[in-house]
Amino acid sequence: MTEKKIAIISDIHGNSIALNEVIRDIQNRSIDTIINLGDSLYGPLDPKGTFELLKSYNIISISGNQDRIILENLNHTSESITLEYVKSQLDSEIIEWLQELPFDTIIDDICCVHASPQSDSEYLLETFNEGAICMKDFAEIEKLLRDIKQKIVVCGHSHVPNIVETDNKLIVNSGSVGLPAYDDDSPIYHKMQNFNPRANYIIINTLEDLVSIERLSIDYDFEKSARLAEKNQRDDWAKWIRTGIA
């Protein structure tokens, strides 16, 4: 019997410093397959360096909502200083890579999406109740996954690691490699927080019908990343990176 190990990463957001440490940890565990669930380059950090790491280690990647937003704004100037910064770091090779990213992928009977199977900006597990973040009920989750044949579904987008097991599916959110907190206005104002600055990823271990999940929380030089965010006029990102609090 052969055990298979797959590392799942997501939501790097241009934090090459965090990604480098996560890759180092993955290599120390002798894992060959790494799947990246998107939102790879967007952020006031190091989009080009992040791309180079993803390319160098042959990391399988799909698209996230922020990857899509970069492409949608290539040909006109936006009001976002961070988006304009990211665009300034792109060359033709990176743009071509972004354009070729698939919406989802299936690896070893694992369905990989950025957010939900229907949308790259819809939380698969989380919902809002009177402004508070809570978990969707199993029926709602199963409805979103009704067309997915695979038993295991991995996602990111919320930046908060989680494992949910319904009657039919095992859903794993890998958390974020590069941004442990943020706030957002959509669909209502909310904050996503890990309350620590660490880089998160998961390992899926399969042995025939047995599946185990390892959740990893990796220390790295987050202060270096925070200072880069400050340099690029994003003090809010610097706080999120330093503290995991939005």
Salient structural properties:
alpha/beta; Purple Acid Phosphatase, chain A, domain 2; 14 strands; 246 residues; 5-stranded mixed sheet
Quick take:
The protein is α/β, with parallel strands linked by helices and 246 residues long.
Q: Can you characterise this structure?
A:
With 246 residues, the protein is of the alpha/beta class. The chain has a single domain, classed as Purple Acid Phosphatase, chain A, domain 2 (4-Layer Sandwich). It has helices at residues 16-28, 47-56, 65-72, 81-88, 92-100, 138-144, 222-231, 235-243; strands at residues 4-9, 33-36, 60-61, 104-107, 110-113, 126-129, 132-135, 152-155, 162-165, 170-173, 181-184, 190-193, 199-207, 210-218. The strands form four sheets. It has a five-stranded mixed β-sheet with strand order 3-2-1-13-14. Strand 4 (104-107) and strand 5 (110-113) form a beta hairpin. Helix 1 (16-28) packs parallel to helix 2 (47-56). The protein is globular, with a radius of gyration of 17 Å.
Write the layout of secondary structure elements.
Elements: E1 4-9, H1 16-28, E2 33-36, H2 47-56, E3 60-61, H3 65-72, H4 81-88, H5 92-100, E4 104-107, E5 110-113, E6 126-129, E7 132-135, H6 138-144, E8 152-155, E9 162-165, E10 170-173, E11 181-184, E12 190-193, E13 199-207, E14 210-218, H7 222-231, H8 235-243
Parallel strand pairs: 1-2, 2-3, 5-8, 8-10
Antiparallel strand pairs: 1-13, 4-5, 6-7, 9-10, 11-12, 13-14
Helix pairs in contact: 1-2, 7-8
